[in-house]
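During the second year of the project, the team shifted from modelling isolated chains to modelling whole assemblies. The rationale, set out in the original proposal, was that interfaces cannot be judged from single-chain predictions alone. As a representative example for this report, we include one of the complexes processed in the last quarter. Its constituent sequences, exactly as entered into the pipeline, are reproduced here:
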Amino acid sequence: DGGITQSPKYLFRKEGQNVTLSCEQNLNHDAMYWYRQDPGQGLRLIYYSQIVNDFQKGDIAEGYSVSREKKESFPLTVTSAQKNPTAFYLCASSIDRRSETQYFGPGTRLLVL
Amino acid sequence: KQEVTQIPAALSVPEGENLVLNCSFTDSAIYNLQWFRQDPGKGLTSLLLIQSSQREQTSGRLNASLDKSSGRSTLYIAASQPGDSATYLCAVEGAGNQFYFGTGTSLTVIP
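Output from the structure prediction step:
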């Protein structure tokens, strides 16, 4: 079946540690996105990529990094510079043209020990 | 910067009622608006997409309208069911492929 997968479902990070969240899609979509969701707040865009080997910062990119070496994969690294990483992280993809639906993965919940 | 607001934050209705969820946005220069459903601890499911040139979209018991000039959208759910209980999010797409999400409305349908 086509879709977006994220792993792991839950992730624990120790102080000063970098962790990487996986996002894979087999929808042949060009565009991929990472969002963060905090309680009582709307989703906020961290990074997005419209094509392989290219990505752009969203509204809250500080403390995060991404790569887009393959069309299917858009991993997100939460670095030690991100001081408040506890949140629910959602990955999404869309066909890279206007007015297309975004498809979302099941999400990864990151907790700090 | 685009701001998206959803009212009410929470809504509880008895089964079978029709209901309306509201979404407002501050910048009318949007490409489209989407309504999503989120179940606890899970990712989002896209419900309806309204392009900026459209005024409404329908899917089953759901109907979404868009008034771009006034910066408002509504999601109408007919004959609500307990399985409709979830958080509903609206999102607008602006320039540069940027999506802006509202804070959501938490819906509980009581059997």
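Chain A touches chain B at residues 4, 6, 31, 33, 35, 40-45, 48, 50, 56, 58, 88, 90, 92, 98-107, 109 (CB under 8 Å). Chain A is about 0% helix and 50% strand.
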